[in-house]
Amino acid sequence: MDNDVRLRQDILDELEYEPSIDAANIGVAVEDGIVTLTGHVRSYAEKHAAERIAERMKGVRAIAEEIDVRLPEHKKTADDEIARRVLKILAWGAAISDPEDIHVKVEKGFVTLEGTVDWHFQRSAAENSVRVLTGVTGIDNQLRIRPRMNVLDVRHGIGEALKRNAETEAENIDVEVSGSHIILHGKVQSLRARVMAERAAWSAPGVTAVEDHLRIEDARVAWVPERERP
After folding, report:
1. What is the CA radius of gyration of the chain?
2. Helix (H) or strand (E) holding 225
3. How far is the C-alpha of 212 from the C-alpha of 22, rounded, in Å?
4. pLDDT digits 0-9 by tens, 32-88
5. pLDDT at residue 218 in the model
6. E strands, 6-91, where?
7. Measured between alpha carbons, how far is 214 from 195 in angstroms, rounded to an integer?
8. Are 10 and 18 a contacting pair, CB within 8 Å?
9. Alpha-helical runs (H) found in 93-181
10. Fewer CB within 10 Å, N side or C side of the chain?
């Protein structure tokens, strides 16, 4: 109980300290290391930042994110204008080599991205670019990655990346490659270490999906990662 109280206060303090977030309407509840975020914010970027803050706090075992995006009247934007802005920012972004391969749909400020890219970092870059646009209330990133991989090279590359990361214990993580899918087994010491392990797997060329079976050591509740994060 004391740990939950301290963790809740740490998250509240961090939310208040973060200048990009107006934390006045964000509620935090913690039970057995499971964090529930409630309330509302003024943009999708704030909602995403609040979740990332909670995720990186020591002692967090799982996150339930229930924050609503309530755009101020002067920030509300027509869907066709949002769609035009999305297409422009994708075309201007250095990370996206073929923006014409990405299709955009917007409904009530909710942006859906479809199509194909070559790398996971391009998939993430597209979402990151859209997240900060005015009027966006949410994102469904359905971008697919073109498969192209050598199983032995990928397994070795991920293993070496895990060894280089101070937050993961590579010897406790087993990497299984099935086609263009990566399956992670084993255990880690924290939620952040689990995220970092996923990120290492996603950084391999040609990976189209990462299936995470990693356990947080001594955790009593399994954490289901956000769709195709990081």
Report:
1. 19
2. none
3. 33
4. 999 999 999 999 999 999 999 999 898 898 999 999 999 988 888 999 999 999 999
5. 54
6. 26-31, 34-41, 62-65, 68-69
7. 10
8. no
9. 120-131, 151-164
10. N
How far apart (Å, rounded) are the C-alpha atoms in residues 7 and 4? 5
Dig out the tokens for 182 from the structure: 């990566």
Q: Give the pair of three-digit tokens for residue 146.
A: 């073109």
Give, in order, the Cα–Cα distances in Å from 205 to each of 15, 26, 197.
35, 38, 15
* C-beta atoms surrounding 51 within 10 Å: 16
Contact 177, 152 (CB under 8 A): no
d(CA 192, CA 64): 16
- Contact call for residues 138 and 105 (beta carbons, < 8 A): no
Which candidate, 194, 210, 193, places its Cα nearest to that of 202?
210
CA distances to 8, 70, 80, 141, 220 from 61, rounded to whole Å, are 13, 28, 40, 25, 9
Q: How far apart are CA 135 and CA 124, in angstroms?
A: 20
Give the three-state DSSP class for 111: strand
Record the pTM.
0.63
CA pseudo-torsion sign 86, 89, 95, 100: positive
What are 135-168's pLDDT values in tens digits?
A: 999 999 999 988 776 677 777 888 888 888 766 7
Q: How far does Cα 4 stand from its chain's mean position?
A: 24
**Tokens 């964000």 found at:** 26
CA separation for the pair 152, 17 (Å, rounded): 45
